[in-house]
From TrEMBL:
InterPro entries listed in its UniProt record: Cyt_P450, Cyt_P450_B, Cyt_P450_sf
CDD domains: P450cam-like
GO molecular function terms listed in the Swiss-Prot or TrEMBL record: heme binding; iron ion binding; monooxygenase activity; oxidoreductase activity, acting on paired donors, with incorporation or reduction of molecular oxygen
Record family assignment: Belongs to the cytochrome P450 family.
Protein name (record): Cytochrome
Length: 417
């Protein structure tokens, strides 16, 4: 890692602590540059969640905001849109205000008909219909490198498999993936050294998505295709055709969700499995344990950290919150909460009562969760059937990135042919 480009903590862009924030709750946590992230994204967030860490802390970085550090709080805030609004769901605030995708930035009941439009193509019954197609993509990719005895998992599988599946469902060409991936990276990990710079980066990426989807929406309005985009843009909202600005936001959100989250989740999961051959053997030994183990994987490897906007002045957790405050919800900290899961950093395939917010909670629970579960299950089944034992290459150093969606690069795996 090139440390020359990293600012010392004292030089990071920070804001003054507001009068209503008790000094005892202030912690220096930068959600885009976590301390110790070179050792792992989940490990870095776990360092924040110490036994004496308050359930709610405040950081002067990323424009200044609260962070929920316990699973019970994260769950409650997600389920309480009347108190914790989705009108700004990104930190810093400048990025959140530039974000224009729907219905993630809407609250009930306005958001509900748009959510129904998304669910139409991504419900469990629809995803089960395409399981064989999903499986065929995974098999083709794995068999393309299985005989070589090595691959960069992040680049050769995780960065291709869910993207290929999703673009096929949306009826879009695979050659558009690199352009869309660049936009997705700037949406979920916007570049810049200040909140204002990050806001401008996100705004440009958001406009890039809108420019890409506008002609596609126009071409598919009024048609009868079975792809996800056609289904969504021809949905009625409260008995009326969907407005153009909402269609732009909805289709862009669809692409953003399909191109970034599962891609990175898969790589985090495989790094762990490459380092824990005993867990791999357990997965291989029992097909039912593998199926049930998918939920344990989602608990352990949460990747999303979005935010909520405090709707009004209130007291919460014994702390005064002001209207307009932002609360970051690192879903990783729900799954890794030792007060809810014993030995939370360990993947335990026999664990019961698995609780997590990896797909969020409440009205904004992830519409793509059925597709994500299918992709993870298929990956495990088809990979282990062809590459039953594998490790990280000697000296491998995965490169971790924090942000709204965590990412990891450089995941070289090796195995005997």
């Amino acid at each position: 890692m090139n440390t020359d480009s990293l600012s010392p903590p004292s030089a990071k862009h920070r804001v003054p602590v507001p009068d209503h924030v008790p000094a005892a709750l202030v912690r220096e946590v930068d959600a885009y540059a976590l301390d110790g992230i070179e050792e792992g994204f989940h490990e870095a967030w776990k360092r924040v969640q110490q036994p004496d860490t308050p359930p709610l802390i405040w950081t002067p970085f990323t424009g200044g905001h609260w962070i929920a550090t316990r699973g019970a709080l994260i769950d409650e805030i997600y389920r309480s849109p009347d108190r914790f609004s989705s009108r700004v769901i990104w930190v810093p605030r400048e990025a959140g205000e530039a974000y224009e995708m729907v219905p993630t930035k809407m609250d009930p009941p306005e958001h509900t008909p748009y959510r129904k439009a998304i669910d139409k193509g991504l419900n469990l019954a629809q995803i089960r219909k395409v399981e064989s197609d999903i499986r065929a993509v995974a098999v083709e990719l794995i068999e393309g490198f299985a005989e070589k005895g090595h691959c960069d998992f992040a680049k050769d599988f995780a960065g291709v498999f869910p993207v290929k599946v999703f673009l096929a469902l949306a009826g879009l060409p695979m050659e558009d993936a690199p352009k869309l991936n660049l936009l997705a990276n700037e949406m979920t990990r916007p570049s810049g050294n200040t909140p204002e710079e990050q806001g401008k980066s996100l705004e440009a990426a958001n406009k890039g998505f809108f420019a890409y989807v506008a002609p596609i929406i126009e071409a598919r309005r009024g048609s009868a295709g079975a792809d996800l985009i056609t289904q969504m843009v021809n949905s009625e909202i409260n008995g009326q055709p969907m407005a153009q600005d909402k269609a732009l936001g909805l289709v862009s959100l669809l692409l953003l969700g399909g191109l970034d989250t599962v891609v990175n989740f898969l790589s985090f999961m495989m790094i762990y499995l490459a380092r824990h051959p005993e867990t791999v053997e357990e997965l291989r030994s029992d097909p039912m344990k593998l199926q049930r183990g998918v939920e344990e994987m989602f608990r352990r490897f949460g990747v999303v950290s979005d935010a909520r906007y405090v709707a009004r002045d209130m007291e919460f957790q014994g702390t005064k919150l002001k209207a307009g405050d932002l609360v970051l919800l690192p879903t990783v900290l729900h799954g890794l909460d030792d007060t809810q899961h014993e030995d939370a950093m360990t993947v335990d395939l026999s664990r019961r009562n698995v609780a997590h917010s990896t797909f969020a909670q409440g009205p904004h629970r992830c519409a793509g969760m059925h597709l994500a579960r299918m992709e993870v299950l298929v990956t495990l089944q088809e990979w282990l059937a062809r590459i039953p034992r594998f490790t990280l290459a000697e000296g491998a150093s995965p490169i971790y990135h924090a942000g709204i969606v965590a990412a990891v690069e450089n995941v070289p795996l090796v195995w005997e042919v």
